[in-house]
Amino acid sequence: MRVVGENIESGIFNLKEAIQIADDEGLDLVEISPTANPPVCKVIDYKKFLYERKKKQKEIKAKTAKVVVKEIRLGPNIDDHDFNFKLKHAMKFLQDGAKVKVDVFFKGRSIIYKEKGEIVLLRFAQELEEYGKVEMLPKMEGKRMIMMIAPKK
After folding, report:
1. 86 burial level (CB within 10 Å; 0-12, 13-18, 19+)
2. CA–CA separation, 44 vs 130, rounded Å?
3. How far apart, in whole angstroms, are the C-alpha atoms of residue 41 and residue 1?
Protein backbone atom coordinates (compact mmCIF):
# COMPACT_ATOMS: atom_id res chain seq x y z
CA MET A 1 0.00 0.00 0.00
CA ARG A 2 1.06 3.59 -0.65
CA VAL A 3 1.70 5.50 2.59
CA VAL A 4 1.52 9.30 2.72
CA GLY A 5 1.48 11.88 5.52
CA GLU A 6 3.26 14.87 7.03
CA ASN A 7 6.92 14.36 8.01
CA ILE A 8 6.81 10.92 6.35
CA GLU A 9 8.56 9.87 3.21
CA SER A 10 5.90 8.68 0.78
CA GLY A 11 6.36 5.22 -0.57
CA ILE A 12 4.90 1.79 -1.12
CA PHE A 13 5.09 -0.51 1.88
CA ASN A 14 3.43 -3.72 3.03
CA LEU A 15 0.79 -3.56 5.79
CA LYS A 16 3.12 -4.45 8.70
CA GLU A 17 5.70 -1.83 7.69
CA ALA A 18 2.97 0.83 7.26
CA ILE A 19 1.54 0.11 10.72
CA GLN A 20 5.08 0.24 12.18
CA ILE A 21 5.69 3.66 10.56
CA ALA A 22 2.42 4.99 12.06
CA ASP A 23 3.31 3.56 15.50
CA ASP A 24 6.78 5.14 15.38
CA GLU A 25 5.15 8.54 14.78
CA GLY A 26 2.54 7.91 17.51
CA LEU A 27 -0.26 8.39 14.98
CA ASP A 28 -2.88 6.25 13.24
CA LEU A 29 -2.83 4.64 9.79
CA VAL A 30 -6.05 5.57 7.96
CA GLU A 31 -7.11 4.13 4.59
CA ILE A 32 -7.96 7.10 2.35
CA SER A 33 -8.53 5.48 -1.04
CA PRO A 34 -9.19 1.72 -0.90
CA THR A 35 -10.06 1.45 -4.62
CA ALA A 36 -6.72 2.87 -5.83
CA ASN A 37 -3.99 0.54 -7.03
CA PRO A 38 -2.13 0.24 -4.64
CA PRO A 39 -4.52 1.41 -1.84
CA VAL A 40 -3.59 4.77 -0.30
CA CYS A 41 -3.19 5.13 3.48
CA LYS A 42 -2.36 8.29 5.40
CA VAL A 43 -0.57 8.59 8.71
CA ILE A 44 -2.62 11.07 10.78
CA ASP A 45 -4.16 11.57 14.21
CA TYR A 46 -7.55 9.96 13.61
CA LYS A 47 -9.38 11.81 16.43
CA LYS A 48 -8.14 15.14 15.07
CA PHE A 49 -9.18 14.09 11.56
CA LEU A 50 -12.72 13.25 12.77
CA TYR A 51 -12.93 16.53 14.71
CA GLU A 52 -11.93 18.62 11.69
CA ARG A 53 -14.34 16.75 9.41
CA LYS A 54 -17.20 17.32 11.86
CA LYS A 55 -16.24 21.00 12.13
CA LYS A 56 -16.33 21.39 8.31
CA GLN A 57 -19.76 19.72 8.09
CA LYS A 58 -21.08 22.01 10.82
CA GLU A 59 -19.76 25.03 8.92
CA ILE A 60 -21.42 23.89 5.68
CA LYS A 61 -24.72 23.30 7.52
CA ALA A 62 -24.60 26.80 9.03
CA LYS A 63 -24.12 28.37 5.59
CA THR A 64 -27.17 26.71 4.04
CA ALA A 65 -30.26 28.89 3.98
CA LYS A 66 -33.22 27.70 5.98
CA VAL A 67 -36.40 27.74 3.89
CA VAL A 68 -39.50 28.88 5.74
CA VAL A 69 -42.89 27.94 4.28
CA LYS A 70 -45.90 30.00 5.33
CA GLU A 71 -49.36 28.67 4.61
CA ILE A 72 -52.41 30.70 3.57
CA ARG A 73 -55.82 29.07 3.27
CA LEU A 74 -58.54 30.47 1.05
CA GLY A 75 -62.06 29.36 0.18
CA PRO A 76 -63.45 28.97 -3.33
CA ASN A 77 -66.07 31.72 -2.68
CA ILE A 78 -63.75 34.21 -0.94
CA ASP A 79 -64.84 37.86 -0.67
CA ASP A 80 -62.69 40.70 -2.05
CA HIS A 81 -61.90 42.13 1.40
CA ASP A 82 -60.80 38.73 2.75
CA PHE A 83 -58.81 38.11 -0.43
CA ASN A 84 -56.96 41.44 -0.07
CA PHE A 85 -56.35 40.78 3.64
CA LYS A 86 -54.71 37.42 2.87
CA LEU A 87 -52.85 38.99 -0.06
CA LYS A 88 -51.18 41.57 2.23
CA HIS A 89 -50.03 38.79 4.55
CA ALA A 90 -48.59 36.86 1.59
CA MET A 91 -46.76 39.99 0.36
CA LYS A 92 -45.16 40.43 3.79
CA PHE A 93 -44.11 36.75 3.93
CA LEU A 94 -42.53 36.96 0.46
CA GLN A 95 -40.70 40.18 1.33
CA ASP A 96 -39.31 38.47 4.45
CA GLY A 97 -37.93 35.73 2.17
CA ALA A 98 -40.36 32.91 3.04
CA LYS A 99 -42.12 30.68 0.53
CA VAL A 100 -45.91 30.86 0.54
CA LYS A 101 -48.12 27.79 0.19
CA VAL A 102 -51.59 28.93 -0.84
CA ASP A 103 -54.43 26.45 -0.74
CA VAL A 104 -58.13 26.53 -1.45
CA PHE A 105 -60.03 24.15 0.81
CA PHE A 106 -63.25 22.70 -0.56
CA LYS A 107 -65.88 21.90 2.09
CA GLY A 108 -68.75 19.57 1.40
CA ARG A 109 -70.29 19.96 -2.03
CA SER A 110 -68.18 23.00 -2.97
CA ILE A 111 -65.72 20.54 -4.56
CA ILE A 112 -67.96 20.68 -7.64
CA TYR A 113 -66.56 24.18 -8.30
CA LYS A 114 -62.89 23.30 -8.81
CA GLU A 115 -62.63 25.97 -11.51
CA LYS A 116 -63.53 28.68 -8.96
CA GLY A 117 -60.69 27.51 -6.73
CA GLU A 118 -58.22 27.55 -9.59
CA ILE A 119 -59.36 31.04 -10.63
CA VAL A 120 -58.85 32.29 -7.04
CA LEU A 121 -55.33 30.82 -6.90
CA LEU A 122 -54.32 32.18 -10.30
CA ARG A 123 -55.66 35.61 -9.36
CA PHE A 124 -53.67 35.40 -6.10
CA ALA A 125 -50.51 34.55 -8.06
CA GLN A 126 -51.13 37.39 -10.51
CA GLU A 127 -51.47 39.90 -7.65
CA LEU A 128 -48.19 38.67 -6.13
CA GLU A 129 -46.31 38.71 -9.44
CA GLU A 130 -43.92 41.52 -8.42
CA TYR A 131 -43.09 39.91 -5.05
CA GLY A 132 -42.69 36.26 -6.00
CA LYS A 133 -42.84 33.71 -8.76
CA VAL A 134 -45.08 30.65 -8.97
CA GLU A 135 -43.05 27.58 -8.12
CA MET A 136 -45.86 25.04 -8.42
CA LEU A 137 -49.06 25.65 -10.40
CA PRO A 138 -52.43 24.84 -8.77
CA LYS A 139 -52.82 21.12 -8.20
CA MET A 140 -55.54 19.09 -6.48
CA GLU A 141 -54.60 17.04 -3.41
CA GLY A 142 -57.68 15.48 -1.88
CA LYS A 143 -60.13 18.22 -0.89
CA ARG A 144 -57.67 21.05 -1.39
CA MET A 145 -56.01 22.77 -4.32
CA ILE A 146 -52.42 23.82 -3.60
CA MET A 147 -50.02 26.31 -5.17
CA MET A 148 -46.49 27.34 -4.09
CA ILE A 149 -45.02 30.81 -4.53
CA ALA A 150 -41.30 31.50 -3.98
CA PRO A 151 -39.91 34.99 -3.25
CA LYS A 152 -38.04 36.88 -5.97
CA LYS A 153 -34.38 37.47 -5.21
Report:
1. middle
2. 55
3. 7
Q: Is the distance from CB of 130 to CB of 146 less than 8 angstroms?
A: no
Q: What is the DSSP pairing of strand 99-105 with strand 69-74?
A: parallel
Tell me the pLDDT tens digit for each residue of 55-80.
999 998 888 877 889 999 998 888 99
Domains and CATH numbers, the chain: 2-60 (3.10.20.80), 69-151 (3.30.110.10)
pLDDT tens-digit series, residues 78-119: 899 999 999 999 999 999 889 999 999 998 888 888 888 889
On whether the CB atoms of residues 122 and 102 are closer than 8 A, the answer is: no
Q: Closest Cα to residue 128, out of 147, 112, 110?
A: 147
Encode pLDDT of 10-58 as tens digits. 888 888 988 888 888 888 888 888 888 889 989 998 899 899 999 999 9
CB burial of residue 123 (10 Å; 0-12, 13-18, 19+): middle
Bridge partners, residue 12, by sequence: 2
Cα distance between residue 95 and residue 76, in whole Å: 26
